[in-house]
Structure formats: structure tokens, C-alpha cells
Fold these 2 entries.
Entry 1:
Amino acid sequence: MRILQTLPVVLLILFADSCGKSSQTPVPSSADTSGSPAQPREPEAPLVLPGEASRFVNEGVAEYRQGRYHDAAASFEKARNLVPADPRVSGLLGTSLLQAKRYTPAQAEFRRILTIHPDAVEPRLGLARIGIRLGDYEMATPLFREVLQRDPDNLQALYNLGMLRYRAGDYAESRDLLSRLIILKPDLPDAHYTLGLAYARLNQDAKAEEELHRAVTLAPQNSQAHFQLASLYVRQEKREAAAKEQEIFKRLWDRQAADRAAEGKARELYLAGDYAGAIQEYIRLLEINPQSGRFELGRGQCFLKMGRKDEALAALQKAVALDPKLSDAHFLLAVLYQERGEALQSERERQTFEALEAISENKTGF
Amino acid sequence: MRTRPASRLALACLAPLLAVPARTLLASPATTPASLVFTETAQAAGVTFRHVAGHTPEKYMIETMGSGVCFFDYDNDGYSDLYFVQSGPVPGTTGTRPGSVLYRNDGKGHFADVTAKAGVGAAGYGMGCAAADYDNDGDEDLFVSNFGEDFLYRNNGDGTFTEVGKKAGVSNPMWSTSAAFADYDSDGRLDLFVANYVDFAMDNNKWCGDSIRKIRAYCHPDAYEGVPDSLYHNNGDGTFTEVGRKVGLTERWGKGLGVVFSDLDGDGDPDLYVAKDSVPNALYRNNGDGTFTDVTMDSNTGYSEDGKPEAGMGTDAGDYDGDGRFDLFVVHLSGEVNELYRNLGGLRFEVATYPAGIAAVGVRWVGFGTNFFDYDNDGDLDLYVANGHIIDNIPLFNDSLTYAQRDFLFENLGGGKFKEVGRQHGAYFAREFVGRGMALADMDGDGDLDVAVSNNDQPAVLLRNDGGNAQHYRDAIGAKVAVTAGGKRQVEELRSGTSYLSQNELVLHFGLGSAARVEKVEIRWPSGATQILTNLAADQVVRIREAAGR
């Protein structure tokens, strides 16, 4: 169960505000996701929201953190009504609506703010994300291109356009976009994964293999990369190598499926507010599978709910060490580090979170 | 652009030991006529079946499944009759139980309810059906899967049936879904595969939905454990023995919803493909010695292109790209894509979904019944998908989704590409239903394929194909037929099962484009014997008896 989803960059900063540290909110000028994790951005000029708008935004952020997207949207809408031309508040509203799968009003909000700020990047990204979710790739593709015209190093646009061009059969452009992305963000497993697929379609098997191995190195729990390596080796008639990768894929998939099934009781306790009971259940599950980042994340979320932040930090650090792709854990770590005044660490986690969430539209289900 | 009037050819194949009438319809085009229209005709044709799901506030998972529909010629008069499976009020509740319905076809597309006389009203919470002559007595028998014990109706040959499920050893108590007959061990007797779903029971119903907003919804199959599929070996004395594990069906996830037997590796025996809900699909290679080997991973047919299991519902096999190998198609849940697995030979497949142009169009739809078919007789296989969401209150969870959805008709453009063209061929394709089972037959004998759809808790739909015969156009299950006309070679095989909970008429139908004659028909019988016919006129139904020639 995913508790958190991506919000525009303003979110983390507003967390500080929600913790009562300041009513002034420093907001970056755009979704600047460039730069390496070791080089966080300089803080930018603070944004001053009217007091009531700030309160609604903080309420919305708190609801969003709990996965209450409908409630968050309602709070952000109140704030938006007070500051209708503010692109960041509009972005929060649009993103909450998107996460609540209320695509019609989400689109309307993104389009509204574009009429006021025609060069804005965030609403275009929001609309493009909706396009992917609705299967409207013809809508999403030009929007990502427009984003890249305005922000050539936008990670989300580079990844998603690379993926869309792959799906459209333009493997060369997909390769080019994803290669650019990897220069900017070399530690993004999904970029290497999708680039590997593009190379495979271009019959550049050696490069495909290299990228897929890189994806595995970055995220050893990445069952999909092992799946693709197995497929590649089957195609190359490398039976032994294929069998090895198939075995790893099956083991990882089995474990992930078993973890998902086993987690049911812990999540039920969590949702019922029995955080101590949920922690005990997660400890039991970790005795069965000590390699599950997912269980550590669950434990960390419970500690957070109980206000035991040091224990939450330790659990979340273990979670991302076990599974670097757990975007929710990176998000919560960014918040915790920021609260502790560790800006460098916070920024690193925020960037990792954003990069991982750049592929969130690939997810399947209802 | 048509240069000649409609014409057709049908082949009827009779395998002596099987004594099953098998027809091969040979039909001839170039482009799809704009005037081709599918006309909704259920009421006019006398089909008043309405599926009852028995929806309750408890949202029992079985209420989402809908039911199947089978075309089969129960009275051996040469016309495909129609059977709709009924579900009904969920077990434990009171109320009238309407029962399944058998309609007799008068040969002109008009149907009369003969259920009471035939004795096939099936009183369980029904799921799917499959028909075949399992006892080799010359008439088609009927299997009905249920949530609960399954039924096997033996055809008495006089318009009546006798339920023999328990006696025959196939009254499987698990929640079963799709079924298919095939002679997997080549002993001349049709065996039976039954896909089983999950361990849901009325007394272990879980609460699923949005706990924050307290909105209840139907559970995802992840909420329950899967149960293993069943393969029943036909003992030849009217009984079957379950042999799944013994012969190599080792896959353990369960959750099967669709099944197709098809000779995917071209070695003359039926391989087995099972579409599974949210767990990996399963492909079993028939080893030719009565056993199977799980080749899912090597074949690349178990997962999406990204290595993710998807919510497999209905499935079918067909040679859409004309390379002589049967490809696979599986339809899925919204948020996923309907996967097209292109057969590369040697039981290896590539995911061709995106290159085929069928991915994006399906993202917001939930596919169930599906079939490859040449609706316009232009000589290549098109696709039909019956759509309808699972969750009746889905708009509360996602405002881009609807419960009732329109169906898809994909035209094969050639070059491995498809285009969704439904709304160009009838107002029906703009209407929204909760589609589930779907089957094909030339129910009015006019040389083109018509469609029956069973909708969840809604009236059934019959779509009469008007104009599909403007171009030129076979039962021995497992028979593989190659038709060469106008220099083009097409292959098909006669299958039971396919789609979702449903079965097509046991007739093979070939569109011949503009060709007025068929140069050659090559038949490989289930016995392994081959037969060749030459120089046949188009636009006719031809019945062929094995070894005896035409």
C-alpha cells in the first residue's frame, strides 16, 4: 500500500512550515531536479502566503502525507481560492486531484494556471502525467517536449518522454533521451532499465546488457531488470545465463509477492491506528524476511505516527539500504532530515524521491 | 474497393473416430466495406437472456465475474445453437433463480428457448461453458463451470441432455471459470481442462475498498489465495481422471480465467495457455507423450513487457501476421494493456503490443471476452474485445473510468498493425455494457461471423454482421487447416474454449479477399493424418470427413 505520492517540489519545504518553524515558505523557481545528489541547490527567495492560505496549504500537506488525497485537494482548493494566481498552490491542488484520480478537475486546474502562467513547467508535467494515466500518449508527448524546451534537464520529462518514444517504436530517440537523463542522474535504476530495453530493440545487445546490469547494481531487488536480462539471454541462446537470471527473477518476484501478502495484517493494524501492534507485526515479518525494505518502511511509518522520530529515521535508513527504489522511504527521510536541520541529506533524499517518482505513471491497477 | 460480389466456401470435416462434424468456411476482400455494420438483434432474434449477478452490499467477489456464452450445434442440424450461462442470486440468498438458457437456431438467425426440454437449466452460480463430443457418439456435450460443483451434460442425441458431472468425475468443487476440450494425449478422446480461480468462499468474504473514505469495493484477487487448475483425462468409458500434477501442470499460482489449447510450436499436438489474474500466465508445452512442460519464462508469455504479471482475463490464439504460427492475445484490467504476444517460432514470443498499436486505446478499459476473427473476410485476423469494469462504483475511485464500457473491434491493417474501428461499424460500438463472455458463429448462415456477448447483470447482446460477407469466406477439435487462395496462405485450428468463459462455434472461417477459388486446403487431423483438397470454389460450406475425402 502506497501512502505517499509525489507532490511538486514545494511540498518538502512546506513541511517545515507545517511543523511550525516558519510561515514563510522558500519555494524554488521551478522543479529543478538537475544537479547531482551531492550538490543541493541554494535556498531561494521565500514565498509569503497570506496567513489563511498558508494554513489551508499546511492542512492539505498533512492530509496528503496520510494519503488523504481527496481531503488534501479540498484544503488546497480553499488555499487556491485565496491565491488563485499562485502556480505552486495550484500545483498542489492539481497534483492532489491527480493522486485522487479526479482527472477532470485536475486537468481543469492545470489548464487554468497555464492561462495565467503560459510558460510554467509544472502544469505541463501534471497534464502530461494525466495523459499517460489515461492512455492518451498523443496528449502527453508534446507536453513533455514543451517542458524540455523550457527546462532541458527536467528529469521527469526526459524519463517519461524516453519511455513514450520507446512505446511508440522510436527506439533511437528513446535511447537519446534516456542517455541524456543518465548523464544528469547516473544513479536512477529505471533510466538504465528502460535504456536497456531501447538498446535491445535496436539490436545493440551488448549495450542493453550493460545498462540492465547497471540497473541491477543500483537496485539489486529490481526483478524486472533480471527479467529483461533473462529474455536477452534466451534470445542469444545463452541457456545457462538465462536460467540464472530467471531463477533470480522468480525468487525476487516470489518474495515480493509473499511480502505483499504477508503485510496485510500489519497494514490493517496501521490503518486502525494500532501502531504499536503494527510494529510488532513488522518485527515478526522481518524475522521471516530480514531483507525486506518494504517491512522496514512500514516500521518507520509506524514510528513516525508515534512521534518516535529517531527510531523512524533508523528504520527508513535500513529500508532504502535494502531497497533503493522505495520512493516513499526517501520522501520521509527528506522530511526527517529537514526537521533535523540536515539540509544536505534532506536535499539528496528529496532528489532521489523525485527521480523515482518520475516513473510513477507506469504503475498499474485500478 | 470491391470488384466482385460476395461469395463463400465452407468445409465440413468429419474425423471418423471423432465423428465430429467440422466445417471450414472459406470466405474471399481487399478493403473493409464501409457499409459493414454490426446490428444489435437479440430481441428480434428471440434471445431474451438477461444475466443476473445478484449484487449485494457485501460485495462478494463472485458478483463481478459475469458469465459465458457458447455457440454449439446441440441437435446436429448444421446450425449453431446458443447457450448462455446464468449465475443468479448469490448462494445463501433467497429469490428466484432464473437458470441458464439454451436457444435453438432455426438456421436463419432466429432462436427458440429449448432449455426445459433439453434439461440444461443448470442451477448453480454459473460461470462458463465449453462444448464438445467427449464420448464420441456424434453429438456435442456441454460442460458448465460454477462457483461450486461443475456440471457435465451428456447429449442424449434426441434434443435432451443428462447431467453426469459427478459420475464422470468432473464435478470439481473449486471456483472454476473457463474450460476447454482438447485431445492432449492423442488417444482419440477429448480431454477437459478447467481453470480454477481463488479460495474465496461465502464465509470468508473480506472488506476491501477505500478505508479512509469508507467506500466498499470488490476485492482484488490478491486478497485470496489461488487454487490449482484441473486437467481431466478422458478414460474413454464416460469417466475422467484429474491428472494435472501428474502430467506436469506444476504452476502454483492458480487464479486462471482464460484458456486456449493451440499448437503453438507447430509439432502437431495442442499446447496449453492459461491467462491468470494478477499472477503470471502459464504456457505449457505439450511434450507429445501425454505430459507437459512449463515454458512460461522461456516463452516470454507470462508477463508484461516490463516483467510484471497482469490481470489476465480472456485469451485467444490466432495467426494475425500470416507467418503460419499462432500468436497469443490476452486482455487485461484498466491501467494495464491488452497484450499481444507474437510467435517467433520455437515457443518463443515477443511482446508486440505497442508496435501493433493496440496498447494505449485499452488503458481505461477492462477486457474480458475476446477472439481473433476475420469479421470482414479480407483474409487476415481482426480482434474483438468485450469490455466492462469489475468495480460497479469505480467512478468513486477514478473519474476517468466507467463501469459499463464500449466494446472494441480492431481491424488488422497488415504489417502487424491494428486500428480500433468499432464505431465505424455500427451504433452498438458507441453503447456501453458490462461485457464478459463473448463468442462467435455465423448464426444466420450468410457467410460472415456474428457475435454474442454476455453482459454482467444485463441483457445479452447478439451482433449480426451485415456486410461482412461482401468479401469471399469448419469440427474436429485440434484439426489444423491451411488454406491457400489468391497466392496467400492462412492457417487456423479448431478449438474449444478460448475467449472468457465462452466458446465459438466449431467451425473455421477463412476470408479469401477477392479470390474466387481456393487453390489448396491442407488439413492436419488430430490423428496426425493429413489431407489435401484442391481447386474449391469460394463462398460455400464444405464438410470434410477424415480420410474419406470430400
Entry 2:
Amino acid sequence: MAFAHAGTATASKPGRAGMRIPYLLLLPGLLWLLLFFVLPLINLAETSTKTPIAGGETGAYEQTFRLQNYVDAFSENSAQFSRSFIYALLATVLALAISYPLAYAIAFKSGKYKNILLVLVIAPFFTSFLLRTIAWKQILGEEGPVISILRTFHLIGADTSITATALAVITGMTYNFLPFMTLPIYASLERIDPRLMEASGDLYANGLTTFRRVTFPLSMPGVVAGTLLTFIPAAGDYVNAQILGNPTTKMIGNVIDSRFFRIVDYPTAAALSFTLMAAILILITVYIRRAGTDELI
Amino acid sequence: MANHPDAAKTGDLKLSSITKSFGDFLAVDDLDLVIPKGSFFALLGPSGCGKTTTLRMIAGLEEPTSGKIYLGDTDLTDTKSYRRPVNTVFQNYALFPHLTIFENVAFGLRRRGIKEVKESVEKVLALVELAHLRDRKPTQLSGGQQQRIAVARAIVNRPALLLLDEPLGALDLKLRRQMQIELKWIQTEVGITFVHVTHDQEEAMTMADTIAVMNEGRIEQLGSPADLYENPKTAFVANFLGQSNFIKGTVESTSGADQFVNLQGTRIAIPAARNSSTHKSLLVGIRPEKFRIHNVGDATTGNKLEGGVVTDISFVGVSTQYQVEMPWKQELMIFEQNDGGAPNLRKGDAVTLSWEPHFTFALDGDEDVKSGLAGVDGE
């Protein structure tokens, strides 16, 4: 007994020291999050319930714990809120429709060109997000190729334009977030054992059924990851609406941007930010529950 | 969905001059093969011999470069895999990770729109004794259980032909033994033709009625396990199935059913039927366990070789293995059962070897004695 006890005691010692290592490795990340995410968030929460000092300068606020700020912020901007979610949803659906076949082709049909195609998917990241969005303005603009092609085939009238429309904003967002959709889907398709598709064929499923019953369900983790990586930033985006849109296509990101930096209405901007964050959190929680990906991973 | 004819309506599987090449590499070379309905047939060979490619062509996962595949009178060559009355047990089982065990087994039935899914699945799960796991996911099962589910998923469809691609390769030795017996039992139970691909000669010999030994895309020899072991026609087969001693000799005379061979100066007898060569110079093969080892001067029967010296002895439990150096400087391997029949020997002792003539086989003298040796250890 005594020996057994001594044995377990010595055995657990290195174990306990080893237990600490994961926490030590987490430390830099946690500090970073604390400093650049949690503290600003607390600051933002604090700002969101302030009110202007009576008779004070522009931008001078005092803490009054006014929760009504949230109600006001939401009711004044409900149109921009719903627009943000609708645009983000449309951009996500479009991105999925474009990315899935692309990712599928890269994963299963590209052969030796696989790496080149993957680099091409990421290539847009080599230039700035802003620059790419401005380039879209050129492409969709009056002198651009899209308009002239559409006009040549009389698909649109001579006085119809695409820039400064909702369509431009949505296509711009779709384009900007394509890699975020493509890469996770590619990664989960690539991981599927090709023998599973063979097994499906062996068990009397034709190509389409194999896709529906085996390939697609197994790629769901990638689809969920891709849609989240697209939808979340798209819902909060303001660059596309700013560059490619018009005043009637303003999204909630544009409102927050102008409240913060133009009107200097910090409390409303902060309240809007929190409302947006909460709305996104609720939406994705429902979505992940529905998709049931925890069983797949 | 694809409907397939009843297994009962189909006949033998026939491969007719099947060739498959991948670029310059000839995986299967003009193969002719008939697999009788209801048999347990093994394709045995080292990795890269074309056995898996042959299996995949039967399954429809690979298209032959030329040749035809028939099942009974039906030409299956251009039939898509999902329309063939053939199911496969894949090497790593390829169970669908997102489906339950029940749904995995039901997959084929559902695709064919068969009504009594629940009944059939439960029956086959009972057959493999895993009915209690029906709601689990494949990753929650042990290797042996996954293996049995893979078999269940295939046989529930009552295919005319069940293909098994190294089905036991991922299991440990003990489990493998158990599954060999179980698979054999299932085959007798369901009466489906099993085509089993393996590189493990012991596995093939335990389970199959007929074995085709493959090498470099061709069939070296086809026969029952005992037939292949006792009377191999090539050095490759002799080496791939068990161990052999090869001694060079020349034919001296033939009288009736017996041939007399000069074996390094000693005259021995071989039944003519066991000589697969027409050449004068032969490679005479004797399996290590067929030799008997004697003290010099002891009485012997059958063929006899004198002048041996024991150079190594290793005790392996059921038997003792001796290395004996012969006067022509060749080391022979002898296995003796530890049943008290063999004399007590030590290194350096002079011995005489004997064996019964009908345990001898003879090959062409120009056969490569090393052929097939690399395959003995498997992958």
C-alpha cells in the first residue's frame, strides 16, 4: 500500500506541472483579449448610457444610466437595422451559391491545379479591402464593362445604372467575403474520405443522391463556418454601402460610423453597437442550433 | 433508383481478358478468371499485384482498359457502380460518419426504395450481433464492431457478390482471427459469393475455398488452399504461401509415375505429377515441416539426404526450427514438432534428413528462388 501510494504521488507531480502549461500558453491571447476587447467593451457599455451635459460643448457627456438610449437608438434606426440583415443575408446566400461549386471543384476536380486555384482564391487579400471596393465602383460604373455589356444586349435601359444601388452594395459585399465562404467549405470538403462517396455509389446512390446524402451533409461544418464568417462582418459592414450605395442603402454600420465620427453622438453609437452585437449573437445561436453541426464535428 | 436482379437469378462471375493500365503502369494484365457462384474466393498477392484494382473493376469503381466482366449471362462492363448487384466492404470500412449505425445499414435499401427497411436492418444487425448499437454513430464503435457493421451494410442488400477489400487489415491479430471465423460463418449463412482481397496468406487460406495468387497483374496459380500449398507451380507461389527449401537438381530418369532426380549427388524420387517442369534441370522444393531430422545412422524411410550439420536451433513452443548446412554449402530450414519424435540435437551435430517423396514438388530450374519473398511479411 505504502509503495502504491508513493508511486501515485510521484507520478502526479509532473502531471500537475504539465497541467499548467496549457494555461500559460493561453495567457498572451487572454491578455490581448482583455486589453483590446473586454476593456473597450466595458468602456463602450459605459458610454452607451450617457447623456449630453446640459449647456456643455459638443462631445461632452455625463453618466446618467439612461437605458432609454437603447430604445431611441433602435427605433430611430430600425430601417437600417433590417436593411443590414437583409443585405447581409442576400450577400451570404449569393456567396454560398458561388463558393460551394468553386470549393467543390477545387477539392475534387482540380488535380494538379489545386494549389494555384487556392492561391487565386486568396489573391484578393493581397490588395486592400477599400481598394477592391473602389475597383467594383469602376467595374459597375458608367464606363465599366458590366453596364456596356448589359446595354449592348438591351437588358437594361440607357439611363439605368448599377452604381449607387442596393444591387451594387450586395454584389460588393458578396465579392469581398467570397474567400471567407470558399476556404472553410473547401477545407471540409477536402477532409471527406473519397471512399465514402465510393461507398455511397456502391450502395446504389447515383451522383446526385451521393451529393445530397453524403457529400453535402459532411461539408456542413464548412458551410456553417463560411456563412458565419460572411454574415457577421457583412451585417456590420459600412464600406460597401458607403462606396457603392446611396443614402437609401445605408446600413447600420454607416449609422454607427456617422454617429461616432461625424455627429459625435457617442452614446447612441455605443448603444447601436451593442444592439447590433446582441442581434448577431442571437441570430447565430439560433442558426448553429438549427444546423446541428456539433454532431458533425 | 437502381434495381438489381435477385442474387438467386445470377450466376458465376466471369472476367474475360481484363486489362487495366494507369498511364504506363500495367496494373492488371489480360486477366481471365471465373469465380463460381456461392464460393468464398480470395485474390491473394503482395501490394501492387493488381488484386485491389481487379476488385474495384468488379465493383465498378474502376473501368477496365479492355476486357469484359460478366455476371451469369449479363455483361456488367459498362454498368455504373450504383446499378451493379455488387456490394463492397471497404478497407477502412468507409462507414458514413454522419449517420447512425441503423441508417448506415439502411442506406442501400433506402436508395433502392425497398419497403421493409426496418425489418431487414434489424435482422442483419442481429446476425452480426450488434443490434444494441443501432443508434450509435460509427466513431463510437470499436474497430471490430465497425468492421461487422461494414459487412452488415453490404450483405443487407443481398448482393449477388460481396467484395471484401483487405477487410481485416486494421484489426489486431486476435480480433482478426475471430473475424476470419465469423466472416466464413456469415458467408455460409447467407450463401452470397464472397470475393476477398488480401495480402495475408494465412487469412486467405483460413477463409477461402479457392485462392488466386496474383503477381504483377497476372494470376500465378489458382486452386484450393491445400493444393496451392502442397503443389505450388512457381517459386513465387511457394514463397508467398509459407516457406520452402529449394535445392537444385537434374532429372535422371522417369519410370511410370515416379521420376528420379539427382539432388546434389543423391538420387531421390518425386511423383511425376508433382513436377510442373518439363526441363531437365529442376528446383526441388521441400517445405521445412516435411523434413524429418535424424542422428546419423538412424533408420529412415522415403528420400534421404546425408552429411548435414546443425548450425542453428531455435525453440518456438509448438516446434523447433533447425538450420542445417548441407555438404554443398546450402542452409536448409527444418521444422520439427515438439512431440518427442526428434532426437536431442545441439549445434554442430551431424544429421541425416529424410522426407516422403509425395511431399516434394519440383519447378523449372530457372525459376527465381527469391521471387515472392518480399511479400511474406505483407505491408
